[in-house]
């Protein structure tokens, strides 16, 4: 068993307060982040940070736990690893200062623990766990190794000392991608391959934002959801897409880790909206665009803070405004006028437009947000268990 390190990292515990609906235009927080921060750095502080970086960077190591393999070249793990690559370049780290553990099943607690402890044994000062299922094991190990920083992607846990979580407003990009889908569909039947069912707010919030984007340009279209109950399974993702195509869907969107749904759409001669990374190269005849993550924004910020000795356990929840999320460039497959429609919507979002603002009703007719109000980030990614103009198919 690895020995615990002797000293403790002193951090600031962040407390988050949520409400079911906030007033329209308010600044929102959720259980995943408080994104308000002072970015002003005076000359003295900058000099101190530079000195700290210079004195600590040579032996500084970063660990990353991946559910898949970056060599896949697209999708969830690839997107995260591109962020790691950007962080490495930004901070000037050598290859041996980044310890990657790939293909770590996020349902296997023993495998997760082994991968993380190997990172610690190699001297990693911060460990990023990129999949939801790593959360509980990371929490346990954070208590055992107080001198190591544990940063968990998605999820919601923060131990108040050396473990935080990070995610972002991907629903903003989902909304934009919905515009592309709504303008392209001819059948008005749009399929969505979902990793998890309606009680997972991360997935459901994305589906609902996508549906709102579709509705903004095509109120006659409807979204049909097929759940795989797994974050990563090319076979199940492909099968779910095939089932939606058999129903008559002519667009396939997804919250899943692989390109399989996009390949299925292309093989049927229809269209697709990917996820995590630009999938145009994988399905060039079918892909429209994809909500994408630029994880290097966070990985650079977090690793540098640990390197400088300024890290706190503040959660991170970025959006389009800081470059964490966006959509990939529109392909030539998109309908005429799509770019202009998306540019208009993007400008509104960056100006403060709230995608989930009232009056909103779920599919059962229940009011989920009143007129003149908007849902907070906590509602969208922490408590959303309903579908908006979307139907789950078994």
Task: Describe what this molecule looks like in 3D.
- With 394 residues, the chain is α/β, with parallel strands linked by helices.
- It has two domains: 31-168 and 294-325, Rossmann fold (3-Layer(aba) Sandwich); 170-290 and 329-392, Rossmann fold.
- Helices cover 35% and strands 17% of the residues.
- α7 packs parallel to α8 (260-267).
- The chain is globular.
The gist of it:
This protein is an alpha/beta fold. The chain is 35% helix and 17% strand.
Structural Rg: 21 Å
- Structural class, by secondary structure, is alpha/beta
CATH topology term of the largest domain: Rossmann fold
Count of distinct strands = 18
Biggest β-sheet, characterized?
6 strands, parallel
* Helical amount: 25-40%
Fraction of residues in β-strands: 15-25%
**Broad shape:** globular
Can you count the helices? 11
Give the ordered list of helices and strands: EHEHEHEHEEHEHEHEHEEEHEEHEEEHE
Oligomer: single chain
- Please name the CATH architecture of the largest domain: 3-Layer(aba) Sandwich
CATH top level of the largest domain?
A: Alpha Beta
Mean pLDDT over the full residue set:
88
Q: How far apart are the termini?
A: 46 Å
Low-confidence blocks of residues: 1-55
Find the CATH superfamily of the largest domain: Response regulator
Number of domains as seen in the coordinates:
2
- Give the strand line-up of the largest sheet: 3-2-4-5-6-13
What key attributes describe this structure?
6-stranded parallel β-sheet; 17% strand; Rossmann fold; 2 domains
């Amino acid at each position: 068993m690895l020995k615990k390190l002797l000293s403790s990292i002193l951090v600031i515990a962040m407390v988050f307060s949520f409400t079911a609906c906030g007033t329209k235009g308010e600044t929102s927080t959720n259980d995943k982040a408080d994104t308000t921060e002072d970015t002003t750095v005076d000359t003295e502080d900058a000099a101190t940070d530079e000195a700290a970086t210079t004195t600590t960077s040579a032996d500084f190591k970063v660990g990353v736990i991946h559910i898949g393999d970056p060599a896949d070249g697209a999708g969830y793990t690839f997107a995260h690893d591109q962020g790691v690559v950007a962080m490495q370049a930004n901070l000037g780290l050598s290859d041996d200062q980044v310890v990657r553990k790939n293909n770590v099943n996020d349902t296997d607690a023993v495998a997760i623990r082994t991968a993380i402890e190997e990172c610690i044994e190699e001297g990693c000062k911060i460990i990023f766990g990129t999949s939801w299922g790593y959360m509980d094991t990371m929490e346990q190990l954070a208590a055992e190794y107080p001198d190591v920083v544990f940063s968990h992607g998605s999820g919601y846990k923060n131990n108040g000392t050396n473990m935080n979580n990070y995610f972002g407003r991907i629903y903003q990009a989902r909304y934009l991608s919905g515009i592309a889908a709504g303008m392209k569909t001819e059948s008005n039947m749009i399929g969505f391959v979902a990793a998890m069912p309606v009680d997972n707010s991360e997935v459901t919030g994305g589906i609902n934002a996508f549906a709102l984007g579709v509705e903004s340009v095509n109120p006659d279209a409807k979204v049909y959801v097929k759940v795989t109950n797994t974050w990563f399974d090319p076979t199940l993702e492909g099968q779910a897409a095939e089932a939606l195509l058999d129903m008559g869907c002519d667009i396939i969107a997804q919250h899943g880790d692989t390109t399989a749904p996009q390949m299925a759409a292309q093989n049927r001669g229809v269209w697709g909206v990917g996820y995590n990374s630009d999938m145009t190269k994988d399905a060039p005849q079918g892909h429209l665009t994809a909500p994408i993550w630029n994880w290097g924004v966070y990985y650079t910020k977090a690793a540098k803070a640990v390197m400088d000795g300024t890290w706190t356990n503040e959660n991170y929840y970025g959006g389009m405004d800081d470059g964490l999320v966006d959509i990939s460039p529109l392909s030539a497959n998109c309908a005429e006028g799509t770019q202009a429609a998306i540019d208009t919507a993007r400008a509104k979002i960056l100006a403060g437009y709230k995608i989930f603002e009232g009056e909103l009703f779920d599919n059962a007719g229940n009011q989920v947000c009143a007129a003149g109000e908007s849902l907070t980030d906590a509602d969208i990614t922490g408590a959303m268990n309903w579908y908006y103009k979307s139907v789950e198919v078994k």
